[in-house]
Amino acid sequence: MNKRILVSLLATIFLATSLGAEAQQAKKVPRIGMLCFSDCTIPTWSAFRQRLRELGYIEGQNVLSETRSADGKLERLPALAGELVHLKVSVIVTSGTRAILAAKQATSAIPIVFPIAADAVGDGLVSSLARPGGNITGFTVITPDLSGKRLEFLKDAFPKADRIAVLYNPTDGGTALDWKETQAAARAFSVTLQSVQVQHPDDFKLAFSTLTKEGEDALIVLTHTFMSVNRSRLLEFVAKSRIPAMYGEAQYVEAGGLISYGPNYVDLFRRAAVYVDKILKGAKPANLPVEQPTKFELVINLKTAKALNLIIPQSVLYRADKVIK
Fold it and tell me: Which end of the chain has the lower number of beta carbons within 10 A, N or C?
């Protein structure tokens, strides 16, 4: 009888231990929350997921993902960030100042990684680039000489462009800084700039009217989420006005814009996946420095150049990282 009791007791202990181990293992599967301003399936987010797979994270096996999209509506971001916090995700990944701030306001405990931020320090996201502090880290797209290089490529492509309009949203700290740097670069190139500001969708009508009236030689569109949301509307106007335009993101050129120069955003999202990996393995966001882009790309759309009856010099085409024919 004692032997039977002992065997039964050992079996019970073994079963309880096994179930406990399985439950503990299930709890260890990390959940990654992805907060997207518009579409969570665009190439940048796809690159993020691909890099996670390369690092050994397989969806449904050793990692779970929770995606939330604001569908281009800024006012939805705080509630969506709150949902991810309520789900107790292991880390939140989000891009763009407004989305990052929404996540930061929603939690001070869950790590936050941003693949793209403009002025991370100026916008109050982190204490410093070297030592972010708190629960947030990532990558900033504000780099020295970026505005100057855009203006340089634009002048090389269109040497006679002496009057250049700059379309931007002044309410964003990073964009405002970009505008100041563009002004400094303009002085070096002896170029006259025309400031054209937009803050709301209704502002585009007046902005387009101003651009048409002033008859500038070229246009620079400074990068901002607000601009991206209205990209189709902007590209349509530029095509009709037949004005040479420089953008800060390749997605504009891939959608029909003329020329762009800026950080490789796909690369930044891939690097963000590496930061997520480090955090899931125990690293603290406060100890991971906010890094700057290391890859930049000049993209030119020759189809658009032909439609606008513009000739891009071979010297500029040779320097392009990608030419759409």
Answer: N
Same-domain check for residues 318 and 217:
yes
Q: How far, in Å, CA of 120 to CA of 219, rounded?
A: 26
Within 10 angstroms of residue 294's Cβ, the number of other Cβ atoms is 12
- Predicted TM-score (pTM) of the model is 0.84
Whether residue 135 is found in the same domain as residue 61 = yes
User: Are 222 and 276 in a shared domain?
Assistant: no
What are the Cα distances from residue 219, in Å, to 175, 178, 230, 277?
16, 15, 16, 40
CA–CA separation, 114 and 20 (whole Å): 35
Separation of alpha carbons 183 and 133, rounded Å: 32
pLDDT in tens, 277-288: 999 999 999 999
Sequence-ordered alpha helix ranges (H) in the chain:
2-27, 43-54, 77-86, 97-106, 146-157, 173-188, 203-214, 225-229, 231-241, 250-254, 265-280, 302-307, 314-317
Q: How far apart are CA 84 and CA 68, in angstroms?
A: 8
CA distances from 97 to 49, 236, 263, 300 (A): 21, 26, 17, 28
- Single-letter code of the amino acid located at 57: Y
Residue 85 in contact with residue 110, Cβ under 8 Å? yes
64-69/31-36 β-pairing: parallel
Give the distance between the most distant pair of CA atoms in the chain.
Answer: 102
